[in-house]
Amino acid sequence: MLRSMYSGISGMKNFQTKLDVLGNNIANVNTYGYKKGRTTFQDLVSQQVAGATAPGANRGGVNAKQVGLGSKIGTIDTVQTAGSIQSTGRPLDLAISGDGYFVVNDGKSDYYTRAGNFYLDSSGNLVTGDGLYVQKTGGGNINIPSTSKSYSIGADGKVNIIDANGNITPNTPTIELAKFANNEGLEKAGGNLFAKSVNSGNPLVGNPGASGTGTLVSSALEMSNVDLSEEFTDMIVAQRGFQANTRIITTSDEILQELVNLKR
């Protein structure tokens, strides 16, 4: 069979994967804290038709002759650039201006997120929309008593709680942020969460604004970093690339048909 046919098949599979990634990006264009994916390709091994020769006394060198055998998926990246910050006016909505992730816990493991739409449960604990506990510096849950008169969250992550008498509660908790040596090494765990991987490194946790982490923006949320114009352009490129690879298969098939028709 012709090598071009299998090269076309590999190209079609790769562009299908690229379209899968693009479709997921577009589906999450309004997901708070979402980080878009990006697909890159690599060429496969090349078949050696003739090797290179070195220059001699009477003749110059000759380059190698190689025929490529298609392409493969190189990487599927998570692009960890910051999204735009949108003001919401809701005091429990928080955005991170700079590097870092909120640390949340499901009772067993820590997860990390850039989505700061938090809520209070019936016990006064600060939780995510799925009920995971937001962690404070030093570990543990953040609790705002129901008897509190009001509360506010500063850029340094401190949760200032005003008691019923109008006094600031001592030993106020501070929202913890984590940063990693390799943010793109984090694995998406669903539900706007990231999980630590063997290539992300261990989290460096601390207060907002310390150890290279960003500060908090209260009453605001970080939007998705998906750019629709870029995604639609990439989608057109992927579609045309897929079509071009189908043409390779069609042309190869026509050549094979001609060979079959040589003997009638």
UniProtKB/TrEMBL annotation:
Family matches, as SUPFAM superfamilies: Flagellar hook protein flgE (SSF117143)
Origin organism is Priestia aryabhattai (Bacillus aryabhattai)
Q: Which InterPro entries match?
A: Flag_bb_rod_N (IPR001444), Flagellar_basal_body_rod_CS (IPR019776), Flagellar_FlgE/F/G (IPR020013), Flg_bb/hook_C_dom (IPR010930), FlgE/F/G-like (IPR037925), FlgF (IPR012836), LlgE_F_G-like_D1 (IPR053967)
Q: Where's the Flagellar hook protein FlgE/F/G-like D1 domain?
A: 95-160
- Could you tell me which residue ranges the Flagellar basal-body/hook protein C-terminal domain spans? 218-262
One Gene Ontology CC term in the entry: bacterial-type flagellum basal body, rod
PROSITE patterns hit by this protein: FLAGELLA_BB_ROD (PS00588)
What highest taxon heads this organism's lineage?
A: Bacteria
Ranked from the top, the taxonomy reads: Bacteria, Bacillati, Bacillota, Bacilli, Bacillales
User: Which GO BP annotation is one of this protein's?
Assistant: bacterial-type flagellum-dependent swarming motility
From the Swiss-Prot or TrEMBL record, state where the protein is found.
Answer: Bacterial flagellum basal body
Pfam families, A to Z: Flg_bb_rod (PF00460), Flg_bbr_C (PF06429), LlgE_F_G_D1 (PF22692)
Q: Which intervals hold domain Flagellar basal body rod protein N-terminal? A: 5-35
Name the protein family: Belongs to the flagella basal body rod proteins family.
Name the keywords, alphabetized: Bacterial flagellum, Cell projection, Cilium, Flagellum
Protein name in the entry: Flagellar hook protein FlgE
